[in-house]
């Protein structure tokens, strides 16, 4: 069997092949996107589709770049992000088109066309669209739960799904604007592309926060977190749609102000979660100092965005692209190691899985170091360590396996330097322990 690639290790895969559930999800999303495109071509023609797409793409590109910027400290797998974007642009769009249109057709004979349209926009659409978008997050919770490590991950996946939905939906609205009176298209672009471009990502982020809680905790609270997040998404969506439909411009201003406050709250959550992740690195990695895997200066570098960036620049200056890639793999592996211990503390990972995962992460840290020193056997002292020791420079043979911390659920951790004890006093040690 070929050795696992760094990407496979970081994504927690047992092989270098893409997971089958993600491939199926991408195929279904692509098929639904083709159906949406066919419908658009039938309704508006190729010229309007091209113009509408051209008007919708700039906003989407800017916002996707923003989400990727948010996701820099512990990046999510690219395949997962493509699935989230494609699901929103394909599955969620087709599902919403079918259910929303069907609901309006069924209600029109009973309530009248105008009332049916208002109910569909204000009530049916928020419930349907947030359910289809939220299904992607539940899908990831089911098949890729270990990839959701906190609120930032939930927001990132939700944001990508919401942006995919908004991109394709905006194309339809812009097509309709092109066929309306002169000037309507620019009003539509101003509202959907400039004034309120974060609508769908922000709504679905509420569900994402609930799913993130469910992925990182145990107990019945997980169910209520997901349901509560979905209710928040539906409420925000319905408030925006309903304000435009029922209250006109004053309603839109009020809804916009509320969404702005929610956006500020989401930004605060992201900032706090980044601090949490840095704290995890500084909390768990010192336990690896006695083993020689890291040294105090390494922990300080890994726990700082500026320090990590400085280390990558140094690696690139010394060993080119190979060195920068090796340092990036080393940093991401160290981050994953801290997150692994956080999972153990919350009892959300079994001991066997903990040790197997840790062995893979340690292997990646060793291979990243080896890749760097194959390119540059004699490297100068790194800027974060100066003349002091650095675990990045220590040969793998010097790693003291007996000094590695063990699996400790519930927050109990041995003090640094104390030899770890097996999780079961009279039972066999789990596979992969001690690391070899």
TrEMBL record:
Residues 394-411 have a biased composition (Low complexity). Pfam families: PrsW-protease (PF13367). Keywords: Membrane, Transmembrane, Transmembrane helix. The chain crosses the membrane at residues 20-42, 48-69, 81-99, 119-142, 154-175, 195-216, 223-240, 252-272. Residues 381-436 are annotated as: Disordered. It comes from Saccharopolyspora phatthalungensis. Residues 412-436 have a biased composition (Pro residues). Coiled coil: none annotated. One of its GO terms (molecular function) is peptidase activity. This is RsiW-degrading membrane proteinase PrsW (M82 family).
């Amino acid at each position: 069997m070929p050795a696992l690639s760094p990407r496979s290790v970081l994504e927690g895969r047992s092989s270098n092949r893409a997971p089958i559930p993600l491939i199926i999800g991408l195929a279904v999303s692509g098929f639904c996107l083709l159906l949406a495109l066919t419908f658009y071509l039938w309704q508006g023609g190729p010229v309007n589709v091209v113009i509408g797409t051209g008007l919708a793409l700039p906003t989407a590109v800017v916002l996707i770049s923003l989400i990727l910027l948010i996701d820099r400290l512990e990046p999510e797998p690219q395949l997962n992000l493509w699935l989230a974007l494609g699901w929103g642009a394909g599955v969620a769009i087709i599902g919403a088109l079918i259910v929303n249109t069907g609901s309006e057709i069924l209600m029109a004979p009973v309530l009248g066309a105008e009332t049916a349209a208002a109910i569909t926009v204000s009530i049916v659409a928020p419930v349907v669209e947030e359910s289809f978008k939220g299904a992607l997050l539940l899908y990831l919770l089911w098949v890729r739960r270990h990839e959701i490590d906190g609120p930032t991950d939930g927001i990132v996946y939700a944001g990508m799904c919401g942006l995919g939905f908004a991109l394709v939906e905006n194309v339809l609205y812009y097509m309709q604007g092109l066929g309306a009176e002169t000037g309507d298209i620019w009003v539509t672009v101003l509202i959907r592309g400039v004034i309120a471009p974060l609508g769908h990502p922000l709504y679905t982020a509420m569900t994402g926060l609930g799913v993130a809680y469910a992925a990182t905790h145990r107990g019945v609270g997980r169910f209520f977190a997901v349901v509560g997040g979905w209710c928040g998404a539906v409420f925000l969506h319905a408030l925006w749609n309903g304000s435009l439909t029922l209250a006109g411009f004053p309603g839109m201003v009020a809804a916009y102000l509320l969404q702005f406050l929610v956006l500020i709250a989401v930004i605060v959550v992201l900032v706090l979660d980044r601090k949490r992740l840095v704290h995890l690195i500084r909390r768990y990695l010192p336990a690896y100092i006695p083993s020689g895997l890291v040294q105090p200066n390494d922990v300080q570098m890994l726990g700082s965005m500026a320090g990590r960036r400085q280390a990558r620049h140094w690696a690139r200056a010394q060993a080119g692209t190979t060195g920068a890639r090796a340092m990036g793999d080393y940093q991401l592996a160290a981050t994953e190691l801290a997150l692994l211990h956080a999972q153990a503390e919350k009892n959300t990972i079994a001991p066997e899985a903990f040790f197997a995962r840790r062995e893979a992460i340690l292997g990646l840290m060793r291979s990243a170091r080896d890749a760097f020193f194959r390119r540059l056997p004699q490297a100068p002292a790194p800027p974060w360590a100066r003349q002091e020791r650095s675990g990045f420079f220590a040969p793998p043979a010097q790693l003291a396996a007996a000094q590695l911390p063990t699996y400790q659920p519930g927050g109990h951790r041995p003090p640094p330097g104390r030899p770890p004890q097996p999780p079961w006093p009279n039972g066999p040690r789990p596979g992969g322990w001690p690391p070899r």
